[in-house]
Amino acid sequence: MESKRQIGFQSALLVSTGVIIGAFVGAVLAFWIGAAGVGVLLMAVSVTGLVSRLWGLYSLRSMEAEVRPEHETLSVGQSVTVHYTLRNNKALPLVWVELCQDVPVRGCLEPDDSFRLRRFSEEEAQHTGRAEAYMRRFAFVAGMSELSWDTEWTGVRRGVYRPQDLVLRSGDGFGLTQSSGEVAGLSGRVLVVWPRLVPVEVWPFLRHVWTGNTGKAGWQEDPTVMRGERAYQPGDPWKRIDWRTAARTDELMVRQFDTVTPLSVLFILDAASLEDKEEAISITASLIRVLSAQGIDCGLALPATAARPTILLRPEDPMVTEQRCLFALSEFEAESAGGHFDDMAIVLTAAQSGQVWIVAESAKTTRCAVLAGKLAESGVRLLAARDEPGVAMTKVYTFDSIRRREAAP
């Protein structure tokens, strides 16, 4: 750590530049006028301050930190082990050293007892640029040595943690100087806490639908349920031809099957209308995970928030994966979400999606009623917290009907 080292504001006044220079000048004047005793005292003050200041700054020289998490994604309630290593690559030992790490956004992660949470005073917060930090202190670090330890970080709530540089603080053996400096540590890494995953049923998404559409906007056929035959058309796969009928009638006929599985699903999260936003996010994330495991492409539309514009992850985009959708839900600031969506882009996407679902509190309280009207031709459906009969959408499925009811033991 060769750069960004600075004297901490909690250092003694004795090590300030003004006191060191003033004491030295005073000592010279004292010797000049014959006040040797005063001169010796002032010179001792100047030398002590200078030595303490240089020692404090040099203490953090050639310090390195390495931080390696076992993995960078976890769910609420799960833990990840983070390996820490501090290296002192110089002969001078450190009398004490303190490591400071940013507090994860929204408190999505919490460490074990090896770290303590420290809330800074107003003066210290202005100096450090942090209102609080997780800290760990060591009493002594020998020269040319390293310290290693593991810390368990537990996912408390969904969120995305983008830590800044770690801050190391140390000082001299006199206890007069406190210096600080930054090391890379976790900087550049991202730790993601997925939304809480809950048991869900996906029967509303897999119902039998008699349709001839195929492709992204259609349905995946079930080869076990045949619903008829039609005349062969150029481009039809040969494995679909009914060869027995062809041998008997000299006509090529293609078998058609029942369709049960949508090839894609688009979820539109109407967060502004939801009373329990976290429950809706958990159910949406769980549905995306289960449907993706069954080979169904999932997409996600999120409204604009105070800090971010609207988000649209199209299910037909090959770059949109289950992990990308869960990541967007993890860092979504639901509390500041409004009712603004990119309506035009969503309508175009919905035309290519097998199913379109709006996740809202109810049909009457939805904040995207205009968007729902535009999606009427796409057969938009409502995944609602409250069931309301007589709504204009295709069907209302409540959160309770999607959540799996565990059988009593």
Biggest sheet: strand arrangement: 1-12-11-5-8-7
Q: Would you tell me the structural class of the helices and strands?
A: alpha+beta
Helix count from the secondary structure assignment:
9
Cα end-to-end separation: 59 Å
Share of helix, binned: 10-25%
Q: What portion of residues belong to β-strands? A: 25-35%
What is the H/E order? EHHEEEEEEHEEEEEEEHEEHEEHHEHEEH
User: How many strand units?
Assistant: 21
Largest sheet: 6 strands, antiparallel
Q: What is the residue-mean pLDDT, rounded to a whole number?
A: 84
**Apparent shape:** elongated
| Low-confidence regions | 208-222
Structure characteristics:
alpha+beta; single chain; 409 residues; 24% helix; 6-stranded mixed β-sheet; 6-stranded antiparallel β-sheet
Describe this structure in words.
The strands form 5 sheets. Strands 1-12-11-5-8-7 form a 6-stranded antiparallel β-sheet. Strands 18-17-16-19-20-21 form a 6-stranded mixed β-sheet, sandwiched between helices. It has a 4-stranded antiparallel β-sheet with strand order 2-4-9-6, with no helix packed on it. The two termini are 59 Å apart. The protein is elongated, with a radius of gyration of 32 Å. It has helices spanning 17-32, 36-58, 122-128, 243-249, 277-293, 322-330, 343-350, 369-374, 399-402; strands spanning 6-7, 63-69, 73-75, 79-88, 97-102, 109-111, 116-119, 132-138, 145-155, 159-161, 166-171, 178-183, 191-194, 219-231, 253-262, 264-269, 297-302, 311-313, 355-360, 381-384, 396-398. A hairpin with a 6-residue loop joins strand 11 (166-171) and strand 12. It has 409 residues and is an alpha+beta fold. The chain is built from 9 helices and 21 strands. 33% of the residues are buried.
